[in-house]
Amino acid sequence: MLINLYNQLLFMSFIAGGLYLILKLFSMVTQKYFTAAWHYYSYVLISTFFVIPYYALLLKLDLHFISKIDGMVPLSSTGFSLLRPSYPANTAIEKVAALPGENYIAYSYFELLPYILMVGTLMFITIIAVQNYKLNKQIFRVCRLTDDKKVLDILSKCKQEIGISKAIPVYISVYKSTPFLCGIFRPRLVLPDIEFHSDELYYVFLHELKHWKNHDVWLKTLMLFINAVHWFNPLTYLIRYDIDRFGEAFNDESVTHSMNKEERRKYCELILSILKQVTGCNARLSSAFSDKRNIERRIIMIMKNEGSKSKKWVRIFAVAMTFALALAGTVTAFAAGSSVVDKSSRVTVADSDIGPLALLYENEKVFGPDGHFVTTEFSTPSTNSNNINVCFHNKGTSSVTVTLEKKGLLGWSKVDSFTVKAGKNPYKEMDGASKTTYRIKIDTSTGADIEGHLRANQL
């Protein structure tokens, strides 16, 4: 079951990463014409592909036309060839011999990969939890709760203006830090221990409170979770950085939306003033105000925002582009996931031919030297698939174990198995699914030759 879970996880990581790269490719153009809000929500939408298998919704529908795309999708026949052991191709009439030596050993080691990925996730989460614990501890150790009437009055005014009723205390940091908001359930505002004018406090509070209003803290937590689960994918680190960057630009856009040119200039001066305060200092506590690489870009976007009201056709095109990209990713994932089928399978069953006890695989002369036998791959139809009956007439001299395996992006995983004594002819009903590739392994612990008649039927 763990292998199946990570099969889907790697599949989603591959699809989401591809969508991110496409969006990044167009970013040089989109940043000139589309708003920061569009970039922010587009990247957030793409990031959900890391954790939500949208293509699974299409798998429940009868969308035959999408399966025609599988010829253009490189995953359709091979999947991730680097993520599973390779097996030699076999014709329809060939019996498959055992896979001794390196291939079989590699497959055994390969089964450990999900556990390695899980350990990496746990380590990532542990590191983040420790860092957040230290941050909270530092806030209470080096910051003091303010009771300054001017500060609290301006905060109250900003909260009322934005529509926030939750109590948000303000702490003063002894470090030359930048203003920031922290806390998921109990938000806290942290200000550096410097003198702010009333209008500067007003802009700072508007900016930080907008983060709370837009649920940015929750989103950053979700992105950390996605990063933890997909720690092995470097693109998750990049998309998390881009979401933070565009989140700040979107926040600036929201705050300055109704400001005139003079008010925008003061807002930009505030950003530069705070940046100057922390330049050269050991700013242990920081926020987007201290991100020097993006300050210039943010100021340019703020100052041109007044005259860059998007035309209606630009807004429509931007929304259409986002949904087109998401739909393309979903359809591509569907086509790839539903067509991971070996075209050289011995038995091909058409959708319209499915019926009771439809034959999926049969070999009347199974022979496996050295106590090991693997069938060619066979696939279930894309609709009306039920469980699979596996029957083996053991004509050998030793008991054997018959195992049904399912193909995924991480390789083969066990579905079910049963033991067949010498001379017996039992069968077992096992879990089956539509549009899935299977194979059957027969093994004996004694190493004796395997002989018999093997059959797999769709119920």
In brief, what are we looking at here?
With 459 residues, this protein is an alpha+beta fold. The chain is built from 14 helices and 13 strands. Among the domains are: 128-232 and 265-305, Metalloproteases ("zincins"), catalytic domain (Zincin-like), CATH 3.30.2010; 351-458, Mitogen Ypm (Jelly Rolls, Sandwich), CATH 2.60.120.510.
Contiguous uncertain segments of 5+ residues:
64-107, 281-288, 339-356
**Can you identify the CATH superfamily of the domain at 128-232 and 265-305?**
Metalloproteases ("zincins"), catalytic domain
How many E strands? 13
CATH class designation of the domain at 128-232 and 265-305: Alpha Beta
Question: For the CA atoms, what is the radius of gyration?
Answer: 30 Å
**What count of helical segments does DSSP give?**
14
What can you tell me about this protein's structure?
The chain is α+β, with helices and mostly antiparallel strands and 459 residues long. Helix content is 47%, strand content 17%. Among the domains are: 128-232 and 265-305, Zincin-like (2-Layer Sandwich), CATH 3.30.2010.10; 351-458, Mitogen Ypm (Jelly Rolls). The chain has helices at 2-25, 27-33, 36-48, 54-59, 75-78, 102-110, 113-142, 149-162, 198-213, 216-229, 234-255, 261-278, 292-304, 312-337; strands at 143-145, 170-173, 180-182, 188-192, 358-368, 372-374, 378-379, 388-394, 400-408, 411-420, 427-430, 437-443, 450-458. Strands 6, 7, 9, 10 and 12 form a 5-stranded antiparallel sheet that branches. Helix 3 (36-48) runs parallel beside helix 14 (312-337). The relative contact order is 0.15. Residues 64-107, 281-288 and 339-356 have low confidence and may be disordered.
